[in-house]
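Quick one: structure tokens for this chain, please?
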Amino acid sequence: MTILNAKDSGPTEGGPSFSLANRAQRAAWSLCWTILAAWTPPAFHPWRRLLLRLFGATLHPTAKIYASARVWQPSNLEMGEHACLGPKATCYSMAKITLGDHAVVSQGAHLCAGTHDIDDEHFQLVAKPITLEAKSWIAAEAFVGPGVTIGEGAVLGARAVAFRDIEPWTVHIGNPASFFRNRMK
């Protein structure tokens, strides 16, 4: 997936940041999810995994994706063993988003792998991967920004905002997220 050059596409004037083919693929994905998955009961995790895999996601057979979760580009989603993308979570996967084994993204949390270069006169889109290492937890309505790694066993507290990496086995809270305490292994 290639990001278009903002100088040529003019996003500040309503121009696209992605190719027509990419936008068509995402429209097909959105329609498919809306019709075939968004209404399904919680127990239909295998069905939702199948749909995501058909659109390129890499998912462990035990990964859980809730029906109300939103995935922008399935081919940029990778989930490990027992990883969970909770209800109403948003996975804005302009770049690769990886959830390690037993990583949890709680209800309403937002993983955003894209931003714009605010110093570029053309407002160029920039995409950077997000990694949630094993046993990490993104609590309710928290936000993880582009290029952030949440270390193994780390916790980003409810409604906290992470624009920097979070060290393993620590708890961070607030906006911007700051160290609160260590977490026991």
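The helical segments are 6-9, 20-36, 45-54.
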